[in-house]
């Protein structure tokens, strides 16, 4: 029985029900070049009442008829139907216009005119807009063509040929996003009108094969290769693999003798693809998937292995390959793959999970039950409440499988928390033996050894970790453990150096700060460490309440008297960290940061931005630090950021107004703005008023307003002149020409020790005036 007779049988049994399916079948016949049978099917379909005026079916029939050289007879047919009114006049007119256009019986302009007249007479029509667009596109008038394609789908979203037309215009424009979108819509509506799509050809071939239509099945897959050769002048080897596999299946189904020959072709092609160094890993994945679909397991594994060799450093690709191997039952191959990947990526969570899953599967452990119990054990471990249930759960998991490092880690932690260090070491050691290259496990093991057990072994493990590349967080942890190692050996100078390196990476780690403070205290006091300091070195200050810091602050004051600036700075950082930056003492802590190293402190304080410490107080601190580091413009920016806030404590607003004005004055910019801020502070009648008058005097001098500057200085209630007030008084003499008076006033200042960046600037100015006779005002 011919394919056409089979289809007609379906048609008769489903008349009035499946005309869309029948149209698709006709398209499938066209796809395999059964043009006459397809035309007969379309004509039979048009005899059905509900299909008689379906322009899409007429369009497909006309398109096919013109391909078969029957344009003239079709034109006569539709003209006759129009005369006899056996077809709706609008439909008949459209069909006549389409025959003239597709059969090249009319010029492009004549076709546009015909379709336009139909729209004028019968109203908007998708087929007419499509015809106009097609004609315009043939003349390269793409913009107008696109407009008409858009009008077409606006009238009828199901007129799918328009989507193809739009996709091609967008591709010509270089807009591949829009082009792909409309091409996808076209394929969704009608997959069997385009050649070259591997899935379309394969699906159709398999459909014909399942119906016993071997010839059509062969044509469907052969046409895939033919399309590539005709349109691209080459055919990818992967497509030839699909062709050979499909032909082998067809031969086997019809009991032919060429199946083995086709499979040999497949092997030859696969070897060529594997050996080609230009073949991408993604292409190998696609080839393996094809081979897996056709149950070619041996070749599939071979391709997977080659893909692994080329992507062993890519955990996600390894995971994908391994899961595909597991899906086809290749457990040993999958195990080998994941072990290799784990060696290259020992910290990757997905690879570790896949390796454990494979080992569990090989050990015939119920994977789902195991991971369910493991999750319950983790919840018990995190809760830290029911230790007995946790111990039972972990030992149950060990009875199911003994090779999970996570279980040994939890057991080690549990015993360590209970003070049973011997048992803890047994499980930590087993944990490390299972995954010695995993940095988290290695650091955990080293931490236990260095803090509670074998110092030598712990240091050895740390050295092994240091040999590998790692991120900053891991590097900081290694320095911290090295510091702990030296601390236990009482080599405090080395301990301070190592924990200092850790703090360079994460300057606000509370544990690191406690550690460096402890080491600095032990190093500073040596064997004569006072009793209160001994207590301090054993205290976990990260757990203290705010009212329990009295002794700590007293010790900080004593250390400042001993000029232990670095130690004092670290203690202030810890206080700031534990207080949340909200205690009144924070101003004093900033002073200590300035005293230690304002440049380094500024960079460390920047790391508190976008944390819980992010606040106007932090911006002020950054302004002070950058100012003291000599970066006045950056300091101004932070001070201005504070003043831009609507709700500020009055005290902070006054301080920041003084500070930003000071920056303006020393830079010689925005002097009027500085005066405005300073007058506001002066009028506040607070402790800051005197300082505001002093800075106003400096500002007036910069502006050349000598009288006003003198008035401000005279209004000062100064019992003991400061470096700045003496400098400004001398400037008044210098400005008036009394150089010797100015020098006499400044001379004692030449030997004064500078304690801040402003003191340094003042002394530099005095030296320039005193020894070099620098002009008071530029160009003077």
Tell me what the structure shows:
This protein is an all-alpha fold. Helices cover 74% and strands 0% of the residues. It contains 43 helices and no strands. The longest helix is centred in the N-terminal third of the chain and has 19 residues, at 214-232. The protein is flat and about 120 Å long.
Name the descriptors:
about 775 residues; mainly alpha; 43 helices; about 75% helix; flat; disordered N terminus
Query: What count of helical segments does DSSP give?
Result: 43
Distance between the termini: 114 Å
Global geometry: flat
Which residue ranges are poorly predicted, with pLDDT under 50 across at least 5 consecutive positions? 1-17
Averaged pLDDT, please? 84
What share of the residues does DSSP label as strand, in percent? under 5%
Percent of residues in helices? over 70%
| Structure class | mainly alpha
Sheet of most strands: none
How many β strands by DSSP?
0
What's the SSE blueprint?
Layout: H1 3-13, H2 19-31, H3 35-45, H4 55-67, H5 71-84, H6 89-102, H7 108-122, H8 126-138, H9 142-155, H10 161-173, H11 176-189, H12 198-210, H13 214-232, H14 237-253, H15 259-275, H16 281-293, H17 297-310, H18 315-327, H19 331-344, H20 349-362, H21 367-383, H22 387-400, H23 405-417, H24 421-434, H25 439-452, H26 455-466, H27 472-488, H28 492-505, H29 510-525, H30 531-537, H31 550-561, H32 565-579, H33 586-596, H34 598-606, H35 616-628, H36 632-643, H37 650-667, H38 671-682, H39 689-703, H40 706-714, H41 723-735, H42 739-746, H43 757-772
Helix pairs in contact: 1-3, 2-3, 3-4, 4-6, 5-6, 6-7, 6-8, 7-8, 8-9, 9-10, 10-11, 12-13, 12-14, 13-14, 14-15, 16-17, 17-18, 18-19, 18-20, 19-20, 21-22, 22-23, 23-24, 24-25, 25-26, 25-27, 26-27, 27-28, 28-29, 29-32, 31-32, 32-33, 33-35, 34-35, 35-36, 35-37, 36-37, 37-38, 37-39, 38-39, ...
